[in-house]
Each structure stands twice: as C-alpha cells, then as structure tokens.
C-alpha cells in the first residue's frame, strides 16, 4: 500500500523561467485537437465555434487573382465566450496544438504571475514574437490586473502575436460586479477591441450524465480511498489545506499538485471568507487540469461556497469550481 503524504508539506518555489516553461496545455488537453471536439447537436453554436476557431488557426488568406491582395484586416485575437463545460478550453488547446512556431498556453493567473516574477519588461521580452498566446479563464478581478493585461496584450499584438482567450464573461463586461469597472472602461474596451468574440452555448458536459452532487465519505474512509491507484496521495484536514493555500502563490498551485493521483480532504466546511474561497477555486482548477481525484468528508464539496458568494460578482467562478468538484469526486470527466 502506498504512503499517504500531506499537502501542507509541499512548498514549491517556482521562478519566472520555470513558470514560462509550464505555459503549455494541461495534461487533460495534451492531445486536444479540432477533430476530437464533439459539438452538441442541440447547440449549433458549438459547431459554428469549431469552424470559426479553425479559420482563425489558418490565418487571414489573400484574395484576388494574379495580383492578390490580403484579406481585410481582422482582429488579432479570438475570444471564446460561454458557460462552463461547453468545450472552450478544448478548442483553445486544439488551436495551440495547431499553431506553428513559439507559442504559449496558460491561465490568466499564470500570465499575471509571470509578469510579477519577471517584471513587465522582461515578461514582454520573453513573450514578444510568439506566434500565439493562449489565455484560459480570462477574468479580471482587480484594476491592477486590468491594466497589466491590457498593456501586455498591446505589446504582444504590436509584435505580430495572435491572441486567443476563453472566459465566462464577454470581454467588454470583464470586471463587472467586482470593482469599479466604470473607472477602467478605457482599459477594458481596449482589451475588447482586440478580440473577435465567438459565443458558445450549451450544457456543462461534466453534468450531462451524472447527478449534480459531490460524493462524500466518512473521515475513516478518506485515507483508505485516496490510496487507490499507483500515484502519490495526500490526506489533510480541510482547514489545514485552506491555511496552506494562503502561504503559496496561486501560480505555484500547478507545482503543488504535480504528481498527485488523489487528494483527501477531511472535515470540509462551508467557506465564509471570499479570499479563502477564491484561493480554493484556483486550487480546484489546478486539480482539475491535472485530473487529481478528490476524496472528501464533511460538507459536500458542491456546497462549499456560501450562498451570498454564489449571488455575487464571482458567481461564474464558483459555479465552474462546483462543476469541477462534482467531476473530481465522482470520477466523471
């Protein structure tokens, strides 16, 4: 039987260059392609989005005969807007795999962390000239991030880099309900003007064939169940993990869960502090990317966010996390 470790013993230190080296699609999407995307026939926008992203991958084409002219200038970015679980990240990863040359794929928080680790000028120098920068989970949670990403994308677009992004919020509505967006309209509009928005409708594929509840077990069962499988496992009190997440920058959560097969959380409770809740969302995202199984006792993990949080400005983040928590505790993919 394999040894069960503690997540709180893991304290990864990742520098800027290491962060950049990790800017590739997560393991779950390592083989994502346009041909493996399965549009839901009940939602035509999914097939339309697939075709639109494929056209974007091909790039602008010249028109005319012998003396060809370039096609009318198109925006340098494509933005996949839709609910969680409709395949946006799959399409983004497929686009990344189809792109030639130097390219990057990361979450919004990973790019802001890269700027924080390297400094703005060095981050621009590192990314400048890339054929594609793919940004998953594009959400602006504070004015500083708004301005940093606006400047960063402006520098990259000027160097010829194409941008692709996903989010649950249309680009001209980023930041709504979270800070005084009116004070930053210029930055937000500048971001929106760089993208052609593609709307994707549909149901969360993770919840099409399962009941919408996370699985719970008794405390005594957590450590036994996490040991199923060959990979490394951890088991901790939920409150200890929440406290530990506060000591690790979210950009390092990728390294925090690296190599794990299962994570046990004993004594799950409803989170009342929004800062703790948002850290937990970022942690769940990394668990989901790495397909780390969750075994939990206490409150069901789909009930971990307080009702007032689900009614606030971060509602879409919490709903996405709940969807992923259900999948990770029930074995759905």
From TrEMBL:
One of its GO terms (cellular component) is cytoplasm. InterPro entries: ATPase_AFG1-like, P-loop_NTPase. GO terms for biological process: cell division. Keywords: ATP-binding, Cell cycle, Cell division, Nucleotide-binding. One of its GO terms (molecular function) is ATP binding. The keyword tRNA processing does not apply. The keyword Repressor does not apply. Signal peptide: none annotated. This is Cell division protein ZapE. The lineage of its organism: Bacteria, Bacillati, Actinomycetota, Actinomycetes, Micrococcales.
